[in-house]
From TrEMBL, chain A:
Gene3D superfamilies: 3.40.47.10. GO terms for biological process: fatty acid biosynthetic process. This is Beta-ketoacyl synthase. It comes from Modestobacter caceresii. PROSITE patterns: KS3_2. It comes from the Bacteria. Residues 1-406 form the Ketosynthase family 3 (KS3) domain. GO terms for molecular function: 3-oxoacyl-[acyl-carrier-protein] synthase activity. InterPro entries: Beta-ketoacyl_synthase, Ketoacyl_synth_C, Ketoacyl_synth_N, PKS_Beta-ketoAc_synthase_dom, Thiolase-like.
TrEMBL record, chain B:
GO terms for biological process: fatty acid elongation. It holds the Pfam family Ketoacyl-synt_C. GO terms for cellular component: cytosol. SMART domains: PKS_KS (SM00825). The keyword Acyltransferase applies. This is Beta-ACP synthase. It comes from Modestobacter caceresii. Belongs to the thiolase-like superfamily. Beta-ketoacyl-ACP synthases family. Residues 5-423 form the Ketosynthase family 3 (KS3) domain. The lineage of its organism: Bacteria, Bacillati, Actinomycetota, Actinomycetes, Geodermatophilales.
């Protein structure tokens, strides 16, 4: 049986554009949660977000394409290019050999708000020709496929925050069925008035005005989360195919995935964390490993006390029997929650931790809650990571868990 | 890496379609060749170029939904819930709280939708922006269920909660192929051994001003407002665009042995599925149909089925100039000489094009055609187009034993999907 490897990472995130910029923000412990710019959010009871301030779309996207697309797609186009460059990937002669399989959670927010605004203020003729292709959830996948000439089986999965991991789970099915390379992950751009209002009605956003008070997963003073934008796109390849094209660097192997749904309530999480724990157990079984072999968990880190407690309960169910507590970190605390983009970015972060032997901390985790049997990581520290578990939950009860392993070649050196 | 080789069958079908009630009403309607396209009644369409749609006379409360379910969900989710209720009841599976006949951890949900809660999104926007007056929308006018209703994954959540399905769940949103892809992905969950049962289907409710306006500007929808009942004319030389539709179909997909053990009635087997992208244009199609042909060929390969076994093609047949030409070429390219004999029809001529939902509705129609030996017609077909020269089953349903049928779709973004259904008694060559 051959494996699936990550060979390229493209990051467009509040912590930086490009994988190294993002990583150095995390390692240095510099969160990117700041006052919202672009509009006044005061009436939504929210003042902070993780916005991608260093992103110049015109540096990455053809101006003719820019006018047809939303900021969300600009970020996806940029991240896809960065991932392919990072992998040294040039489209092979067989156009069917590459797929684009992304997650999406909110579509082209700003673009469509603008068009609906025009429709109601001025009438149907004010709606432009690109609304039909700019806002729907498949826009970024379609545009990447067209720009880069990828004709493989492409898709779009929507499971809110869990989407980034689920896209990798689906990519494994694509690879099993014979397509050797798939772009996965996703980005989001929902720091816009209407999209922010929608997210605020979830009741899960922090109303704090100081970054250090706002999004504090696993802290005793946790009071909700901060939204963010951006994400990551990664290139995953069938291992033999990657070797055959002479790939220079493998970031890591995707060795297990598990997904479940709480099936409990349309908004509230199940009170017993059973399905969340089961997703983790399914991913470990899929990887053929025991909980003892996991060196690091990148948690969902919702920042809502009830959700944090359920996550810790799920982790204790799975890892509670270990002699040494498993390190648990929540790097989304540096960027805010990016919906589908966030879990994809966490996969990038896990691979960086493996590369450098550095575990990033959890921003603003000053006073951790009690978590017996778990090691909540407050500050970045040196630690070898051979196997990491990345977790994500999606609003409504989606649970997803992905197991990554450091590449074999590097482990022996 | 390989799949487990589990085989997938359809054991339940539920449909919410324009002009009819439920699965049997839908089947009766499309085999009678009756059309459900009419002048739009949901809003005053007079300022729009295209003023015709296939609307569902839908009242969730009358179809078993609670007032809370109706209040918190967009129409697309409500339709999916009603279709899923019918499908699950039809399958005879005991799903839901307290019932352990099927392990709920082995039941998955895959729901397709191209545009999700677009109606609710627009209605709420009108309120919070005061009809487009304020860019900084006013939270005082927002529904407290705004987030739940607009996050597109809520469709999968509602179905998972409804049936206690704690296996893998997701929404698939690949534009107008969402409905085929959702059933394809659901089948993959079973093939790969990750579920025994998948509630799979799609739903869309896009008959709203913003959706009509955005297709108006690119002239994808029909301008034939004078004769709404005959506005959708797939493959006819006079076709001038698609008629917007809405609706949902949900299927119960089941692992073959699981279905056999409980003695379930099987409509058909899902024998193959594939999708490809054209990497050409977000809305444009090259006339050669190469990528759709590739998807068809791979879907047949997946089921180890030869092209000459295909007896029926349920076409995408949207009724745009370019689609019907593209699709005709793709079928010729993939099926070879069989294309000249195959029956091929578009039910969009009767129920319009419900974007992502239509793929699942068409799979439902195809499964029923295979089970019942009747092929639904293409309505409003009168004037042949030299570029579309296959047998489109004009206007009258045809009795025909179908061992293998194909349902295909094509969508914005360049997506091309194909799925193969086979009669349960088909002999494997």
């Amino acid at each position: 049986m051959t494996g699936l490897v990550v060979t390229g990472i493209g990051v467009v995130a509040p912590t930086g554009v490009g994988v190294e910029a993002h990583w150095s923000s995390l390692v240095r412990g510099e969160p990117a949660i700041r006052p919202i710019v672009g509009f006044d959010p005061a009436q939504y009871g929210v003042s902070l977000a993780g916005q991608v301030t260093g992103f110049v779309p015109a540096d990455h996207v053809d101006p003719r394409l820019m006018v047809q697309t939303d900021r969300w797609t600009w970020m996806s186009l940029a991240a896809a290019t960065l991932a392919a460059q990072d992998a040294g990937y040039t489209p092979p002669e067989d156009a069917y050999a590459t797929s684009v399989f992304l997650a999406a959670g909110s579509g082209g927010n700003e673009f469509s708000q603008h068009e609906i605004q025009g429709l109601w203020a001025k009438g149907p003729k004010s709606v432009g020709a690109y609304q039909s292709i700019a806002w729907f959830y498949a826009a970024s996948t379609g545009q990447i496929s067209i720009r880069d000439g990828y004709k493989g089986p492409s898709g779009v999965v929507v499971s809110e925050g869990a989407g980034g991991l689920d896209s990798i789970g689906w990519a494994r099915r694509v690879v099993r069925r014979g397509t050797p390379a798939v772009l996965v992950g996703g980005t989001e751009a929902g720091v816009t008035p209407y999209a922010l209002l929608c997210q605020a009605t979830s009741g899960r956003l922090s109303t704090a005005t100081a970054p250090e008070d706002a999004y504090k997963p696993f802290d005793r003073r946790a009071s909700g989360h901060v939204v963010g934008e951006g994400g990551a796109i990664l290139l995953v390849e069938e291992a033999d195919a990657a070797r055959a094209r002479g790939v220079e660097r493998v970031w890591g192997e995707v060795v297990g995935h598990g997904a479940t749904h709480d099936a409990h309530h349309h908004a509230d999480p199940a009170p017993d964390a059973r399905q969340y724990a089961r997703a983790i157990q399914l991913s470990l079984a899929d990887a053929g490993i025991t909980p003892d072999e996991v060196d690091l968990v990148l948690a969902d880190g919702a920042g809502v006390p009830e959700l944090d407690a359920l996550e810790l309960e799920a982790l204790q169910r799975v890892f509670g029997g270990r002699a040494d507590p498993v390190p648990v970190t929540a790097p989304s605390s540096f960027t805010g929650r990016l919906m589908a983009g966030g879990s994809a970015l966490d996969v990038a972060t896990a691979l960086l931790a493996m590369r450098d032997g550095i575990v990033p901390g959890t921003a603003y985790l000053d006073d951790p809650v009690d978590a017996p049997g778990l090691d909540l990581v407050q500050h970045s520290r040196a630690q070898q990571v051979e196997t990491a578990v990345v977790l994500a939950r999606g609003f409504g009860g989606f649970n997803s868990s992905l197991v990554l392993r450091r590449p074999t070649e590097e482990r022996t050196s | 890496m390989t799949t487990t080789g589990c085989r997938v069958v359809i054991t339940g079908i539920g449909v919410v379609a324009p002009g009819s009630m439920g699965r049997e009403g839908f089947w009766e309607m499309i085999t009678a060749g009756r059309t459900a396209t009419r002048r739009i009644t949901f809003f005053d369409p007079s300022r729009f170029r295209s003023q015709v749609a296939a609307e569902v006379d839908f009242d969730g409360r009358k179809l078993g939904l609670t007032a809370h379910e109706v209040f918190r969900n967009d129409r697309f989710v409500q339709m999916a819930m009603v279709a899923a209720d019918e499908a699950v009841a039809d399958s005879g599976l005991a799903l839901g709280a307290g019932v352990e006949a099927t392990d709920p951890d082995r039941v998955g949900v895959v729901l397709g939708s191209a545009v999700g809660a677009t109606m609710r999104l627009e209605d709420e926007y009108v309120a919070v922006s005061d009809a487009g007056t304020h860019w900084l929308v006013d939270p005082q006018y927002a529904s407290r269920f705004l987030h739940h209703a607009l996050v597109p994954s809520c469709g999968a959540t509602e179905l998972a909660v409804r049936f206690g399905a704690s296996g893998p769940a997701t929404v698939v949103s690949t534009g107008c192929t969402s409905g085929i892809d959702a059933v394809g992905y659901g089948s993959q969950l079973i093939e790969d051994g990750d579920a025994d049962v998948v509630i799979a289907g799609a739903s869309d409710a896009p008959i709203s001003p913003i959706s009509m306006a955005c297709f108006d500007t690119i002239r994808a929808t029909t301008g034939n407002n004078d004769d709404p009942a005959h506005a959708a004319r797939p493959f006819d030389a006079r076709r001038d665009g698609f008629v917007m539709g809405e609706g949902s179909a949900v299927l119960v997909l089941e692992e073959l042995e699981h279905a056999r053990r409980r003695g379930a009635e099987v409509y058909c087997e899902v024998s193959g599925y594939a999708n490809r992208c054209n990497a050409h244009h977000m809305t444009g199609l090259r006339p050669d149909g190469v990528e759709m042909a590739e998807a068809i060929r791979l879907a047949l390969d997946h089921g180890r089925i030869d092209a000459d076994e295909v007896g029926y093609v349920n076409a995408h047949g949207s009724g745009t100039k370019q689609n019907d030409r593209h699709e005709t070429a793709a079928v010729k390219l993939s099926l070879g000489p069989t294309a000249q004999q195959v029956s091929m029809s578009s039910i969009k001529s009767m129920i319009g094009h419900s974007l992502g939902a239509i793929g699942s509705i068409e799979i439902a129609a195809t499964a029923l055609a295979v089970q019942r030996g009747v092929v639904p017609p293409t309505a409003n077909y009168e004037v042949p187009d030299p570029e579309c020269d296959l047998d489109y089953v004009p206007n009258t349903a045809r009795e025909q034993k179908v061992d293998v049928a194909l349902s295909v779709g094509s969508g914005f973004g360049g997506f091309q999907s194909a799925i193969v259904l086979a009669h349960p008694t088909r002999r494997t060559p």
